[in-house]
Amino acid sequence: MSLIEITEVKKRFGDNEVLKGINIDVEPGEVIAIIGKSGSGKSTLLRCINGLETIDDGSISVAGAQLLPDEIHLKALRLKVGMIFQQFNLFPHLTAGRNVMLSQMVVKKTPRGEAEAMAKKMLERVGLGHKFDAYPDELSGGQQQRVAIARALAMQPIALLCDEITSALDPELVNEVLAVVKELASEGMTLLMVTHEMRFARDVCSRVVFMHQGRVHEIGPPGEVFAEPRTPELKQFLGML
Ligand code: ADP
Ligand code: MG
C-alpha cells in the first residue's frame, strides 16, 4: 500500500475541468516535485490531497484512509497532511513560538505545556530555536517561512505538501528554506512539492511530476524527466525548444 494513493481524480470549477483524471501513488519517504505551467492544476491537486477542495470523481487515500467529502473526514485528513503555502500566513500579533503552539492547541487540543515543548523542538529543527519570542515582523521572509514549516511539523503530519514555498522570497533567502526541506527529506518525511527550483528537484526528489492541462503529462525520476523529456510540452517547459 502506498502512503498516498491518488486514483483517477477529477476536479472542475464550473465548466472548467482543472484535474482530468490524476493518478499518482506516493510511497512513504518519497519526495515528489510537481512542475508545470501556471494554471496546469498543481495547487488544486495539493488542495484536494489535504481536503481543502472536494473532488468530483476518483479517490484519494492517505495512509489507507479514503478521503470522503464530509467535514469530519476532512478534518482528520488535515491533521494527517500538513500544507505550507507561498504566503507564510503567520499571525502578526503572535510570537514565532505562539504561532507554532496555536494550531496544536486549537485543532488538536494539545495542553499548553506540551504544545510549548513541541514548538521549541520544532523551531530548533528549522534552525530557529533562538527566535521563540520574536514576532513575525522581526524575522526575515526565509525565517518566517521556516516558522511556518515548524508549525506544520508540530502537528506531526505523515506527509507535507509544499506549494511554491520559496516563490515569495528574495533570492538570497531561498536556500535556507530549501535546506530545511532537504533535511526533512533526508529524515524520511514524505513530501509533495510544487516548485520552480529545478536544481533542487533534480538533486533531492525521487520523482518529478510534470502537469500539463490538468493531466500528469510525464512522471519519472529526475534523471529521466529532466535529461530525456519525451513530450514537446515538457521540452518547451524546460526551455529546450
Ligand atoms: P497552478 O497551481 O498549476 O497554477 P491552479 O491549480 O491554481 O494551477 O489552477 C488551475 C485552474 O483552476 C486555473 O484555470 C484556475 O483559474 C482554476 N481555479 C483554481 N482555483 C479555483 C477556484 N477556487 N475557483 C475557480 N477556478 C479555480
Ligand atoms: Mg499554484
From TrEMBL:
ABC transporter domain mapped to chain residues: 4-238
Major subcellular location class: membrane
Membrane topology note: Peripheral membrane protein
This protein's UniProt keywords: Amino-acid transport, ATP-binding, Cell membrane, Membrane, Nucleotide-binding, Transport
GO cellular component terms, semicolon-separated: plasma membrane
Any GO molecular function: ATP binding
Residue spans crossing the bilayer: none
InterPro entries (UniProt xref): AAA+_ATPase, ABC_ATPase_HisP-typ, ABC_transporter-like_ATP-bd, ABC_transporter-like_CS, MetN_ABC_transporter-like, P-loop_NTPase
Record's subcellular location: Cell membrane
Pfam families for the chain: ABC_tran
SMART domains to which the protein is assigned, alphabetical: AAA (SM00382)
Keyword flag ATP-binding: yes
Protein family per UniProt: Belongs to the ABC transporter superfamily.
Protein name listed in UniProt: Amino acid ABC transporter ATP-binding protein
